[in-house]
Write a structure and sequence with these properties.
This protein has 163 residues and is an all-alpha fold. It has a domain of 106 residues. The protein contains six helices and no strands. InterPro entries: CCAAT-binding_factor, Noc4. Pfam families: CBF. Belongs to the CBF/MAK21 family.
Length: 163
């Protein structure tokens, strides 16, 4: 409730700073940051223009001044969220899906739950990814009538992250 009474410049500057950090943090935290930015935009529809604005082609063309200490002078509201746009092409499908959800934000969307993302670490992501590949193979085998042979990538199937 408190976040709704903050000025748009301040919220935009905070969202832009978080978007820059999302490029540098580990991938198991990127979904958390993207979801947090998503919720900020849902609570403050005035900063939605950062999504709708044409993304800049490079960092030097961006009007945002990251070194500015005063959020009102950082020009974040006049910038775009090109950082999240670049995360839509991330190698991990969960990060790319979160970024795509933010970039396709509608006016009627509701806030997303952050609590499940708070406890995720590399081991859980690895286990989730191993199970995902098994599920996709099962779906492929159910939909196709001809047997498929997978191309072996590793000689031994990975069981844990550090074995």
């Amino acid at each position: 409730i408190l976040f709704r009474h903050l000025p748009a410049n301040l919220v935009a500057s905070f969202a832009k700073r978080l978007a820059r950090l999302a490029l540098l943090i580990p991938q198991h935290d990127q979904c958390l940051i993207i979801t947090f930015i998503y919720n900020l935009i849902v609570r403050h529809p005035t900063i939605r223009v950062m999504i709708d604005r044409q993304s800049t082609s490079s960092v030097k063309d961006d009007t945002y001044a990251p070194e500015e200490r005063d959020p009102n002078k950082s020009n974040a509201i006049d910038s775009s969220l090109w950082e999240i746009e670049s995360l839509t092409h991330h190698h991990h499908p969960d990060v790319a899906t979160c970024a795509l959800a933010l970039m396709s934000l509608r006016k009627t969307n509701h806030e997303r739950e952050i609590h499940p993302l708070l406890e995720i670490d590399y081991d859980e992501m690895f286990e989730h990814d191993c199970n995902r590949s098994n599920r996709s193979r099962k779906k492929k085998n159910k939909t196709k009538t001809t047997p498929t042979t997978d191309c072996p990538i590793n000689y031994n199937t990975a069981i844990s992250l550090f074995d």
